[in-house]
Fold:
Amino acid sequence: MRTQTITDGRSHQGIIVSPDDHHAAPTHVSFSNISQLIAAGADFDLDVSLPRSDFQVARLTILGPLRQLGAPHWSEFASIEATRDIAQATGHSARFEGMQRSYVALYSKQNGDTYLSDKIFDQGTSPSNRYIALKDCWLTRGILKLRFHNYHISSATLWVKGQTILK
Amino acid sequence: MRPRNPTIITDHDYLLNQTPNDHHAQGSSYTVIVNSLSIAPGTYEHRVFVGPDFRTVEVCLRGNELTNMIGNTGFWGFGTNVQQESCGESIRPYGGSYYTSYMGAYSRLHGDSYLTHPGVFGDSIRLVDVWYDSTNEEVVHVFENIAGVNKNLTVYGAGTLK
Structure:
């Protein structure tokens, strides 16, 4: 029997391999950041530590501040699919405040979109006047990077939580 | 022929003459069809046999009676091979009045007890959870009837597995 070294640090004996012997098994990670002050025009990177470094794709559901501040049926959220390439993320974001205040949009970095969400993650401002958007999302080795941007002329507070499935 | 020395395997190297399909977990898909199924108050597990070795499931469900509402309803979400780790979005677009449209996202890891909006006035069926049961090799869609009386569940969709 021989021992073979594999990239994620595990090893196995013999030559017969199964699907799980050396490939990252899908898993999930939750994250939150609900009090981060971001200066006017600045970026903030929320780094989510991953249990391994060899994931290829992350699929996220992230929840915005209306979950905390709005009426029970109000909702703000975005769903993003990211890869190891910062230029390849896609996603959509939505804000629901009833029929009179609803929003949904889709984004594709490959097609030149500057942001991956509407400006829906600002805790301190009114629902119609929010300033923090998800700008980028990508995988590095062992870290899921979420880059938020405050594009208002004054500081704003980030409120976000969510979870990701990693493949 | 087997190599004489230990082999370094990367994402793009394959043992001997293997192809990616020889040792990569393959994705799969399944369909969901539930037509006017009467559900008593409480939870109902809709199970679909899919086979072994999956760890994630992503599903898109739609149906007028998913939340027993007027208009189209839909759900998109994903789960793992562990119960109560799913998350997703529910959407009910309908232009009739303020209260009949809805968009929302839910994360059970962050404490949400279900994955879809319970519907207007709470008299509806909602989706509680989606997960892969590795013991029985089934995808489980857990619905809950919160109406207090029997309700009919109608839902169509498909899921993908990895």
Remarks:
- Helices of chain A lie at 66-69.
- The radius of gyration of chain A is 19 Å.
- The longest helix of chain A spans residues 66-69.
- Chain A touches chain B through 42 residues (CB under 8 Å).
